[in-house]
Every structure is written in structure tokens, then in C-alpha cells.
Amino acid sequence: MLLAAMLVSFISLAQNRLIINADQGDVRINKHIYGHFAEHLGRSIYGGIWVGPDSDVPNEDGYRKDVMQALINLEIPNLRWPGGCFADEYHWTDGIGDPAERPKMVNTHWGGVIEDNSFGTHEFMNFAKKIGTEPYITGNVGSGSVVEMSKWIEYINFDGVSPMAELRKRNGQAEPWGIKYWGVGNESWGCGGNMTPEYYANEYRRYATYARDYGGNTLYKIAGGANNWDYNWTEVLMKNIPLEMMDGISLHYYTVAGTWENKGKATEFNKEEFLETLRKAALIDELIKRHGTIMDKYDPEKRIGMIIDEWGTWFQVEPGTNPGFLYQQNTMRDAHVAAISLNIFNKNADRVHMANLAQTVNVLQAVILTNDTDMILTPTYHVFDLYKPHKDATLLSHDLKSEEVGFGKEKMEALNVSTSRSADGTVNISIANINPDKKIDLDVVLRGIDAKTVTAEYITAPAINSHNTFENKEVVKKAAFKDFKLNKDNLKISVPANAILMVRVK
Ligand code: AHR
């Protein structure tokens, strides 16, 4: 009794304490929160994913083998394509049939390069199949037409005799693919047509009417939602679009280090800028809450998903690279942004049903960087790898007391946490320690689980700007973590400085 009392008072005195309610929770963390996004932008598709069957780069049917395998290993739940801003300039019929006959176009948004349409619908759908992910296509509302989008869906999904189904068969695909996730335009407030929310809401209703369900497949229709703090956009869409006409509404939020005009460098920054970037990343929590409150007003059951289909860091491009290609390096700072963002998405999983990191390969906060023949996994890749156990797990409530870390004007909690329970009862604890200089001793109280075993993995690095290069690919990599001690329901973890952990208790 005395011992128990002493233990309780010791724990409550601990500066850093996490109490986990392992036997509670009724919200599932949708695996689609761990989704990705690949646009026809820079070397994302061409060179990053697709090199063509005649390339010297080792490939399978034109897809880079190294990238394919890395994405298979990451078990990505869905992949958004073909944009982004590109989606509203893309005409899908240009990307089917004999590749030699496909028309070329200028990719006006991204570097003014020639797009030869060699990667089109079949190449995307086959890629999704090969890497075991669900395709998520964004249709063209900005410069397309209702009939164009409606025929694309017919081409992909119709299972009977129809002009588009016959065309698909002639192009070598007998069976319909049965796509589920469908975006109706992208950033219609900007590159997707500069529309007002009232105008877009009407357009959405028209486009969605002809986005038909075929062969028992039900489309999950995603309306093009707001940017950042544009709460009015969400309000108008929720008010003017009949709820039964949509399943999701998107939200885009990018983290910059400086201002939008001067976004800061990807690898050169000081501790103050590091913390400022993380503070900005964490603002997504407030955005989710405030857009979510508007959605709650119209959809208290939370049936409609908030789909954060573009998020991540956006820095200056690497010196000497095409400014329109958005190629940036990826450091431990990006890893912390990913960890914090994913922890926040998990926490809001009752409303956030999907999220897509921008972007998969060679663009913005990429998980993979390639050169002609080689590939590196970024620190962000390793965070997604560490966080796999959270996918489809039950969100657990917790209470965290964390010391702060501060540089310059900024102060933040040093520890950032998410907790979940897998189907087999394992409790998953993801922890980021954003203090670059200090190891933190964390006391975890495991309530509601008779804990017997603990396993853990982590990433860490000597510096906040540590990153992998083609010369040194494993500066940041996943490793086993052992610095913990389990004593009944108390787990002590020494969380290293500048580290991200996944601790699993069973
Ligand atoms: O991800 C890069 C671009 O950012 C996308 O094309 C666009 O939707 C957003 O503005």
C-alpha cells in the first residue's frame, strides 16, 4: 500500500509523464491517413516512378524496380494521382492507347516541360496494383468538362458493354478496375479554376451527378476543399452541397520555414528556425479543429471525411535544380514534421479519414529521392515505416505532461505522442523528442493492460539537419531501441534527443 502510494507520488512528480488508457477507445485510425501523392511534376512520375520499358534503369514493365520495392515495403494504403494543379489541365484521353501515338502537351504549371503522356491511366492503375495500394484519382474540373470526367469513370469502372468499356478493352484491360476514391477537381479556389466557393459548390453538384457508380462499386467522392485558414470555403461547400452527394472534403496545408515568398532552405537552418517550422507544422491541429467544427454543424455524425490530401514541408528547391520541379532534400526536421503531423491526424481520426503526403518521389517532402540509377530513403520514409502499427488501430486516449524546449521566441512541448491499440491488443506509442540536445526520461503509466513485453524501434541523428545522400545513404535509418525498463504498469523510456520512436507493449 505504502509502496503503491510512493509510486503514484513519484510518477506524478515526474517531469515527463504519459498515462495511457489501454482498455478504452472506439475510434479507428483509418489506414488511409498514411496515404501518398504523386503528381506529374518534376521527377516525380518521370524518372522517379516511370522510366519506360526500354530504359537502362532496372525496371519492371517500365516502373523503377528500386522505387517500386521501397513503396511495397512501406505498405502505402493509397496513392493520389495525377495532381495537384496538373489534374485540372490533364485530359485523360491523351494518356491511353499506343504510347507512340499519344499527344504531347506542355506541363505549364511545373517547369513548362513536355509531357509525352507515356504514363497514363493504365500505367497508373497497373502501378497501384503492383505496389498493392488503392488508387485515388483527381478529375479535371478546372479545364475539363462533365462529360470528360464522366467518361473517364466509365472507362475505369464500367463492367458491361459501353463505348468507354469497349475502348478500355481494346487498350488491353478487359476487367474494370473498380476505383473507389475520386476527387472532383483540385484547389478550385486557385490553380484549379480560381472559382468562388459558391461557383465551385454548384460545379461540384453537376460533376458529382454524372460521376456514376458501376457494377456494384460505390465511388467515394471527394470535394475540393479549403486551403489553410479559408473557413468560408468549408462553410459554403458544407451548406450548398447536399451531404449525400459527397463522402469527403479536402484540406491542403503546407509547412514552410520562412514565408510563402521565401520558404527557407531544406538543409540549412538554425535551431530557432527548426522550432519555428515544427510550430507551424503543429498548427494543422487548429485547422482540423476549426474546419471540423464547421463540418460538425452540418454533419454531426462525422460521416464525411476530412481528407488532408496535400500536406508536408515546402522549402526552396535544391541549388541548381529546376525551380518548377520542387526538388528538396529531407532532414530530421522533415521527420519531426511527419511525426507531429501523423500524431495529430491520429488524434483527430474521428474526422480525418485520409491524408496524403506531398509527394512520394523527388518532390517536396518526398519519402524517396532518386538520381538516374540510384535511390535513397529519406528520414520521412522511416517515420512512415515506424508508424505502420498505427494503421487501422484503435485510437487510445492519453494524458501527456512534457517539459518544454525553447529557442528564441518559440517554446514547444519537447515530446509529441500518439497512442493506439492494434487488433491483437498491442499498445503502440509513437514519440517524437524535438529537443535537439537533451535526452528525456519519460515515465509511462500503462493503465488497462497487463504489460509483459516491450519492443521498440527509432530513428535519431546527430543534428537537426542530418539527412541521407547518395554518398551516405544511412545517416538516418531505423534501428532497434533498447533504452527502456518495464516494471509492472510502469514503463520508463529514455527518449534520445532529436529522435522519433515507436514503442510497442504487449
Ligand atoms: O504539391 C504541389 C502543388 O501544391 C499541387 O500541385 C497543388 O495542388 C498545390 O498547390
Write a brief structural summary:
By secondary structure, this protein is an alpha/beta fold.
Oligomer: single chain
Strand order of the largest sheet: 2-5-8-9-10-11-12-13
Note poorly predicted spans: 1-11
Q: What would the average pLDDT be, to the nearest integer?
A: 96
Fraction of residues in helices?
A: 25-40%
Percentage beta strand? 25-35%
Number of strands: 27
The SS-based structural class is alpha/beta
- Rg, alpha carbons: 23 Å
Q: Are any ligands bound, and if so which?
A: alpha-L-arabinofuranose
Shape: globular
Helix count from the secondary structure assignment:
11
Distance between the termini: 26 Å
Largest sheet: 8 strands, parallel, barrel
Catalytic activity: Hydrolysis of terminal non-reducing alpha-L-arabinofuranoside residues in alpha-L-arabinosides
Subunit structure: Homohexamer; trimer of dimers.
InterPro entries: Alpha-L-AF_C, ASD1_cat, GH, Glyco_hydro_b
Enzyme class: hydrolase
Please explain how this structure is put together:
- The chain has 506 residues and is an alpha/beta fold.
- The chain has 11 helices and 27 strands.
- Helix content is 25%, strand content 26%.
- Strands 2-5-8-9-10-11-12-13 form an 8-stranded parallel barrel, surrounded by 6 helices. A 6-stranded antiparallel beta sheet has the order 16-20-21-27-23-24, with helices on one face. A 5-stranded mixed beta sheet has the order 17-1-22-26-25, with no helix packed on it.
- The two termini are 26 Å apart.
- It binds alpha-L-arabinofuranose (AHR).
- Alpha-L-arabinofuranose binds at residues 39, 83-85, 186-187, 310, 358-359, 364.
